[in-house]
Structures
1.
Amino acid sequence: MTTGSSHLDHAVQTATVWLGELMAILDWNDRDRAYRALHTVLPALRDHLPAGQAAHLAAQLPLIIRGLFFESWKPDAEPLADRGGDAFIAHIAQAFSQNGDAHPSEIASAVFALLERHISAGEIQKVKQTLPEGVRRYWPPKPLPRATRESFLYFRHL
């Protein structure tokens, strides 16, 4: 399916690649579930970052993924009262409460690994330094290989 706009088609294609990569990282075979993971973890991550840092990270996200990140954002709202890892993981667990085989910490780590594949190393370092320790502990200790044209071609077909 094409939209008739090369820019919009590219945005859809890029989002599809990201979902495919996340499915591969999590060893899932369900694109809707991968979408839900992004749609859950990205706003939770955003809400644990200062507004300026969230905006810097979002600037490197592809168009559709950026929309997930910013959905329902209220930059002038009070910061989260509980910025710890328990609240972060509880938010993910609630979104996947119907999936007994979903592990919220693995989902968070997988989305973080996906970000690390596509976002500049400098920006990732700033995000990690800004996150509360309770959330930062879910960042994978060893990054996955950077995204390449070969991974793009592979994941495009999932």
2.
Amino acid sequence: MGWSRSLSQVLLIAILLVGMAWSRFALGAEMVPPNDRMLYTRMNAAKRVTVQRISGVPSDSCRPAFVTPSDTIACYPASYVVRAPKGEWVRDLLDLSARWSWMRGRSALSPEFAAAVGVHFRGDSLDADWILSFEPMSVLIRINGIPVASATIPTEHHAPLLNLVQASLQKDALVVAQRDLEEERHSAARHVDRSTYGGCDCWIEALFKSPYKRVAGPHDTTGCYAKPPVPTGTRRPIYPEFAKEALIQGTVILHALISADGTISNIRVFRGITGLNDAAVDAVRRWTFEPATKEGQPICTWIEVAVEFHLAE
């Protein structure tokens, strides 16, 4: 009797091990969270990548293996589908995704998760869906229709991710509205903990344009100085040729520290644009100011600077 029970236990363990191995084989190595670089390599090498505006809930009973292949993410109704933008768009999306903390299955998703945008990766041995929810901002990856990993997107990555999404779905009103909403949230919280800014608490809550133009009534809300800084010399940014050729344009927002001697002693890129940040920093670093004063003495001051790059029409 004891021998029979031992044999039964051994057989049961063997069946479980074979079942686990078969499940892993059937689902593929992608069952590990997507910070596995092999999955990213395969997704980046997909032969066709499409972006889809999801306009409804998926069918739980639907699996891509049993439906006619198409550009859309199988089982998700779409308002429209477009090819992913050319260039580095896919790589930028995957590189950003690789920086998130992923959990298996749907573990990281809120009950309010609602698919809004999907990216479909199709290759010879790959059928992967990257699915985004706006509110709350989170993402799900499905392989062959099965959820394998999910992540809650860090707040600091909301804006760059929405910029990527908007670049692929430029005319979608919901996507544009969500990006604008995120910019408003970002702007409202832009004056972060000033203790991290080199011990200088003085702050101007207004933008200095480049080339410099005094905006209406820059003011100090900290009670730090009696007289605001005044520019004595500014410099236009040099538009990088490669950025022009790539049609890169927009406004770079910098945080700049004006020292008590009127020079720029520190610059931080607050809201950057890849390809334009260095040119913006190089220009503003050469600006000079008559420093802010308090009780007749010069003091340091942080300001925001908007450096604009616009292609000639």
3.
Amino acid sequence: MQVKRVLGALRRRFVTGLLVTVPIIATVLALRFLLRSLDSLLGPGMAALLGREVPGLGAAATLLVVMGVGLLATNVLGRRFVSWVERGIGQVPVVRGIYRASREIVATATLRRQVFRDVVLVEYPRRGLWAYGFVTSYTSRVSSERLANVFIPGPPVPTTGVLVVVAVDELRFLDMSVEDALKLVLSGGLVAPPTLPEVDRRAEVSRAGGEA
């Protein structure tokens, strides 16, 4: 029995260590790959222009180009040009799929703070079963009943899921950040708090017209 307890304790510590170190290592490797990829885009051209190679200069130049494209795309002519390019890409079957998937991933990663407003529990797909969801917006029916558009992500890819419309009174608001909720979904429930603290925001949301 003593040996089993020791082995069980070692196993729990090993699993905890994996949960901590693997994401860190994966992040470092992803950042290194990203920086090397960015540097390789304009790095050779910058080296030819300067006559010598400067590590990181290609990545910096690429970021400046991205910033310039962002500035260009915010004016009328830029938006028309981007729309024209997207229509052209949409005519190529394989390229179209890659472009759309990449755009959705980037949009989800960069805009999730603005898109996902509240973390909630919603009874789905039937009564008695609860699913984690993110309120994306609030609306009202003609009867003035307050409704919430709730996106329910599907693990392990949070960009896929279902959109349901639920009465605000039927939601259970969680005192949890969007980042923590996404970690919970991505881990399939492994990274979960011991308790799910709730906060009553239903009256607040109804009173403020969903802008709270």
4.
Amino acid sequence: MRYLIWDFDDTLGYREGKWSGALVDAARVAAPDLALTLETVQPHLGQGFPWHNHHLPHNHITTGEMWWRELMLPILEHALAGVGFGTDDARRVALQAREEFTRVERWTLFPETLSVLERFSAQGWEQMILSNHVPELPRIVEGVGLSPHISRCFNSAEIGYEKPHRAAFEHLLSHIPAGSTVRMIGDSMVADVLGAEAAGIPAILVRKPHPDAQRYAPDLAGLFKILEAMESGEVPPFIEPAPPA
């Protein structure tokens, strides 16, 4: 068996504005009289997320509601307080931000994503996702049209470990037959590449070049040459980003 393990956010798709955008969208709905912009809120969202503390497991959390209540909403409320929101308004906007961040129509696939996954499916690869994400990730994956090609989503919000924690990858491997060919693909050198390779999974970096990456492609279409080289035992090509227009 051959398995491709994909990161999701910024690898297969993205949400415009990320968490800052979700807070701005939420403020427009929940507190329209209180102005909020990406520029004002971004500096308050640079730390504290579960994936920023990937060395700390949270496998005591057993439901999506607990995950939001214990791990995420306090971070969002703290950020809103940092830009001047009162306690009640901060709580109201943070709750609405959950709705805005998980709204499927706000998520967009990269142009080549669907055709690349279709081609890998046709080649016989079983494809899974291992992502540091919100509990609603499976619904987002289905909503953007990837479900026909993704057999399973492994999500840090459910398994209790954030990449690059070794346990996140070991959890995934426990669901794959021993002796299978497994490859990890993601945009983060630390979370996806170093995390996977520490667990014995060869990895390919995409979209965001890094000087220490042994295998890199600027987009998903470049993966075919790299994987073919890995399958044949050749040195995989390091595909350079296109020069700026």
